[in-house]
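RETRY 2/3 - previous attempt timed out on the joint model. Re-submitting the same 181-residue input unchanged.
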Amino acid sequence: MKPSSLALPASATALLTAAVFAVATVAQAPQGPQNPAGGPPPPPPPRTYLAPTNLKVLPKNLTGQQVRDIMEQWEGSLGVHCSTCHTPDPNNIGPNGRPQLNFADDSKPEKATARLMYTMTEDINRNYVSRIESSEAPVTCGTCHRGHLGPEPFVIPPDEHDGPRPPQAPPPAGTKPPLPH
Ligand code: HEC
Ligand code: HEC
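RETRY 2/3 succeeded.
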């Protein structure tokens, strides 16, 4: 708002400016800790996540934050969203007006499959990969899924069916070079 455009007398403009300044100062005051260095205010404290109540395959003593970190890895490894495995709860409407997910609920088949997959992956690492000397690459969801819910079938490139070709001896002088195949 430009006070001059209101065509008020100078005294009224000065009063208005003072009032606006006062309001702005008051509005700023309760805004949490200010950065003493004068830069932007420090970031808000990290969100806290509720402790899990229905873990059947992950270690039961994980904190809410640890479960959250694992879930975000699964989400990324499979290229899906939380709602691929978790059911919305029509009785719990969130601030955006949409039902929140009920993470402890077990009704989606994808959640059951993910439990099986987790157990399988742990088994592969504990009982097989760990036996390979100097193994540094444990199997993760992403090893197979690579950003897809259903792992894509691997198609062998046509040139590599027989493995690498042996180096070809140069043809004797005077012979035609072999046709490329
Ligand atoms: C591929 C399926 C899958 C995806 C995607 C997924 N989850 Fe999960 N989630 C599970 C499974 C399976 C469990 C139960 C693990 C267990 O039984 O130990 C679980 C458990 C949880 C729990 C603990 C619930 C409780 O109280 O026991 C929370 C919280 C959670 N997920 C949040 C999320 C969030 C947030 C996302 C998205 C960032 C997400 N999940 C994405 C499969 C998934
Ligand atoms: C050794 C390879 C491998 C690993 C490791 C693996 N998966 Fe899978 N996963 C598969 C295959 C194969 C399928 C079956 C795909 C199909 O044909 O539908 C599958 C299917 C799934 C499905 C069902 C997909 C659907 O269409 O409903 C989910 C969910 C899933 N995996 C989650 C996970 C999670 C979570 C992890 C890690 C904890 C994981 N997988 C690790 C190979 C793997």
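Residues 64-145 form one domain. Closing ticket.
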